[in-house]
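Lay summary. Proteins are chains of building blocks that fold into shapes, and those shapes determine what they do. In this project we predict the shape from the chain. Here is one chain we studied, written as its sequence of building blocks.
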Amino acid sequence: VHFVESGGGLVQPGGSLRLSCEAFGFPFSTYGMSWFRQAPGQEREMVAQVAVDGSASYYLHSVEGRFTISRDNLRNTVDLWMNRLRPEDTATYYCKTVHLGKAYWGQGIQVTVSP
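And here is the predicted shape, written in a compact code that computers can read:
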């Protein structure tokens, strides 16, 4: 099981980014997927979660209405669309799944929101 993440970078406050995570090595369409983030000196926190069919999601309160998680079960990808970004969204972002009782994480991708 592994992931390839893409799409991070530097953006000004109020801007948008799209993160993408491509999954390999497990039956993607049968597993829930999530995005987490970790800022320096802080604990890793779940940002959003999507069910196997994309119909149910969880969002961290502070990103509700700004971020959208989506998945494509044909391409084995899960995306995080981030709008109206704030400096406090600056963090390393990770995609994650739990497969056969073990958690698998992407390598992490940096998002920096700064003027």
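What the prediction tells us: The CA atoms of residues 68 and 81 lie 5 Å apart.
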